[in-house]
Design a protein that fits this description.
Helix content is 33%, strand content 18%. The chain is α/β, with parallel strands linked by helices. Strands 1-4-2-3 form a 4-stranded mixed β-sheet. A hairpin with a 5-residue loop joins strand 2 (35-40) and strand 3 (46-50). The longest helix is centred in the last third of the chain and has 14 residues, at 79-92. It is globular, with a radius of gyration of 13 Å.
């Protein structure tokens, strides 16, 4: 079972509307996460932000035990999506978010 199964609204991560000030506990949670997922608040479509390697290994093996997942709900068609990608890249050093045309991975809905 993966830990961290609740969805956090994007507004709970950023302490101001500019996205420059980030909640310290969110930074710690992102650092500890093996996988960071986003979910569109309207469509409930899930998408990968970070952790492509861990996701692929878990899907191949069927072993999801011990994976720490940080889940964020946002409006995917707004600046919030890019704010989350930028935050994850800053904290983790990289991101795995792809545009729809680049995405060849299986959907992660239901995680």
């Amino acid at each position: 079972m993966m830990t961290g199964e609740s969805w956090i609204p994007i507004d709970a991560i950023f302490e101001d509307a500019t996205g420059r000030k980030v909640d310290v506990s969110s930074i710690k949670a992102i650092k500890a996460a093996d996988i960071v997922l986003g979910r569109d608040a309207t469509t409930k479509t899930e998408f990968l932000i970070f952790g492509r390697g861990d996701t692929s290994r878990a899907l191949d093996s069927g072993d999801f035990a011990g994976l720490h997942v940080f889940r964020v709900e946002l409006d995917q068609d707004s600046e919030d999506h890019q704010k989350l990608v930028t935050l994850v890249e800053t904290v983790k050093g990289d991101h795995d978010n792809l545009t729809d045309s680049e995405n060849t991975e299986p959907a992660v809905d239901g995680w």
